[in-house]
Write the structure tokens for this entry.
Amino acid sequence: MNAKTIDKAPSEEKGLQLLKYLIVGIFFGLILVKSEVVSWFRIQEMFRFQSFHMYGVIGAAIAVGMLSVFLIKKFSIKTLAGETVEIKDKVFKKGQIIGGFIFGLGWAVTGACPGPIFAQIGAGYSVTLITFISALAGTWVYGRFAHKLPN
Amino acid sequence: MLEIMNWLREPWPWYIAGPLLGLTVPVLLLIGNKSFGVSSSLRHVCAACVPAKIPFFSYNWKKEMWNLLFVAGIVIGGFLAATVLTNPASMVVAESTQTDLRALGITNFNDLLPHQLFSWEETNWSIVLIFYVLGGFLVGFGTRYAGGCTSGHAIMGISTLQGPSLVATIFFMIGGIVMTHLFLPTLLQFALGN
């Protein structure tokens, strides 16, 4: 086997190296609130097809994400640590349908998907701490019974 | 400088915010080969705090510390947006949405979240149980069952042309539409006592 084909082990980051993710998160949370994506009303507008705003935000985010990934692959852009960018393929399973539907039900009630729950807490809507704890409970119950659910 | 600050304080339009949110995908890939996703953080918290020997939570969550720092950042970002960059004007909700929601008992449209549902002053036990406990549970259970949320599936998944993520996103929308049009009217009337 040619030594060149052996991938080097992905570097593990620790301590201060992880701070960059905190900073990206800060920008992400800031944009979520400033674009009012965290608003219960904006989610209602979306599910009632009464405003373009949310479709514009999500659509533009996907377009930019898609273009960036295309460019990363086309020009084989490496990560800061010099690794090849890796994107795991997702596998079809029933969970995307059943779980997706269940999440949708919750999204319309809370007016928040997981990202906005964190942003709402930060923005001072402290009742949503209960939403967060309950979301943790939902995740835990899924994990506890995952092997019994259709997958 | 003051003008820039005033401009930043106003709500950001979709064509500014959407592309910026989308940039999270390449930024996370390039700074550390990380796939953008938020709901996994809930799993990591479970794995860290209450693994209870459940196989689904038995993994080295410390390796996913980046994700926990990312969501901690979202909390800080939300705080900054609501303090340093707080919008001086009130929220502008679409007229048709206001009309629909007024009919269901929502009266105040000034804030990002309806004060009647999301404040300690006006909340009551049925609001707590329906809008925080049940809603949050459905979000946590559903996202994990689906293997991702709006970030991991809709934005990261579709950006990387993953069929399963498109399916998941379609069902997020169907679930939301069903809740909004079939169940929410009853839930709101019950919770608001109308």
Remarks:
- Chain B has a mean pLDDT of 96.
- The first helix of chain B runs from residue 2 to 9.
- Chain B touches chain A through 130 residues (CB under 8 Å).
